[in-house]
Amino acid sequence: MADETQDLAEVRADKLRQIEALGLDPWGHRFDNTTPIGTIRQKPAGPFDDANPGLKVRAAGRVVRYRTGGKLLFLELWDQTGRVQLMIRVNKVSETEWKLAQLLDLGDLIGVDGEFGKTRTGELTIQVEALTFLAKSLEPHPKDVFGMGDIEYRLRHRYLDMIYTPDTLRRAHQRVQVIRTIRTHLDKLGYMEVETPTLHSIAGGAAARPFETHHNALDIGLYLRIALELPLKRLLVGGLEKVYELGRVFRNEGISPRHNPEFTMLELYQAYGDYRTMMDLTEGLIVACVDALDVATAGGEELPEGHNESRAVLIDRKRIIPFGEATVDLTPPFQRASYGTLFKEHVGCDMFDETAVRAAARAEDINPDGKAHDVLVQELFEDIVEEKLVGPVFVYDYPASLCPLTKRKRSDPRVAERFELYVRGMELANAYTELNDPSTQAATFSQQLAGLPADESMAKMDHDFVRALRHGMPPAGGLGVGIDRLVMLLTNTPSIRDVILFPLLRPEATKPGANPGA
């Protein structure tokens, strides 16, 4: 197969030289005033008739199908908005253009001017009157224009995956629409978008293992951020009362269908709010994204051809979307249930009953020895309760010791004012009533760091953050949303690597082999 691919590449290289021999630049030039193919396809089209010429159009894209028939060629041209058939007749183009047409390969980029109409079979077609070469593809493209079956190949060649797998391109468009909607929604609510550092001297804001690096000029160790939280809360102290950031976060941990070491987070903070404020905000934000995608796929904004069906059912303002083999009803209001209530319902004991909790842990083959009570509670919750959360459900009031940055509930300091939003067992959002008492914050930091080795990257107190709190941070609500997981839900995608354009992969063990579709 590798030899076959090499032979095909040599044939393409030879065609490159022949194109140059025609006096053409095989790497193209500026080609202005084109119309997206999806837009062209919406224009009126009648049968080709020399007496009544059709609409003149100009398009550019990639050749994804090629069929020859003597003095007539049929091609299929692709751009991100759709595909259209091209018809090239020997008597409709110049001699040089006809020779060029014979040298085209799948994957080549071309521009065309011509007449838009329908063939006798009713196929929407551009009858080419001028052919412009824009770039040569020196590597063979897959023959299967409907998609590539090898997942590993698709992930390593995302640029081909987007061309030949319609769902990949659809998800890319929809991800952009989700992020655009989030920004628009928050901007309308008066939030200010900011950027905070990616390199941190202390890995804080979450319990996660960071990626470590080194700054040569200052000769200091640094960490890629594991959360956006602490810099944003410093901005609350500085007077930015509604602030958010959409940014990449890095955690040096495992890979799974729901985890990638590099992912996108939304974090926001609102002065004078609390975790219930954040529940309302989260609900409104997700509903706005559902509605925006429904409008886009129903024709309000162009998406790739073949994917313009409505994804959400909006009947009597219900918002029901597919997810896997089931559906999710995102019609507000979302369910709200306390952590303790769900724990007792599914585990069968009170989460504060230490004896019962340790017995339940042993029954689940969880070794309780040496583990703090709340750690056992959380392990049981993850093992037993999470998978039963169909949702959407806001799970609120978590064990306090698990939440070092969260305000305790005044009526019961054993729990913290925190919620997580679950849908089909998947956590989508995490929010707090933010802790703004500097003394309590210093104490919870110390408790969190107790027992960690001194050289552990996470065993460092962020004294500057505590100092910022001592200058006065307003009471506030804070929210974190995993954008990749949200896109997974809204696009009915089971794996996080299919909503991230370039997920982390192991290095290729051998030199790249043949294109499996060539």
TrEMBL record:
Entry binding sites for Mg(2+) 2: E427
PROSITE patterns: AA_TRNA_LIGASE_II
Keywords: Aminoacyl-tRNA synthetase, ATP-binding, Cytoplasm, Ligase, Magnesium, Metal-binding, Nucleotide-binding, Protein biosynthesis
Compartmental location: Cytoplasm
Residues annotated as binding Mg(2+) 1: E420, E427
Superkingdom of the source species: Bacteria
Main location: cytoplasm
Keyword 4Fe-4S assigned: no
Catalytic activity line of the entry: tRNA(Lys) + L-lysine + ATP = L-lysyl-tRNA(Lys) + AMP + diphosphate
Key word Cell division present: no
Enzyme class: ligase
Listed Gene3D superfamilies: Bira Bifunctional Protein, Domain 2, Nucleic acid-binding proteins
GO cellular component terms given for this protein: cytosol
Alphabetical GO biological process terms: lysyl-tRNA aminoacylation
Family matches, as InterPro entries: Aa-tRNA-synt_II, aa-tRNA-synth_II, aa-tRNA-synth_II/BPL/LPL, Lys-tRNA-ligase_II, Lys-tRNA-ligase_II_N, Lys-tRNA-synth_II_C, NA-bd_OB-fold, NA-bd_OB_tRNA
Chain ranges of the Aminoacyl-transfer RNA synthetases class-II family profile domain: 178-507
Subunit composition and interactions: Homodimer.
Similarity remark: Belongs to the class-II aminoacyl-tRNA synthetase family.
Protein name per its UniProtKB record: Lysine--tRNA ligase
Native source organism of the sequence: Urbifossiella limnaea
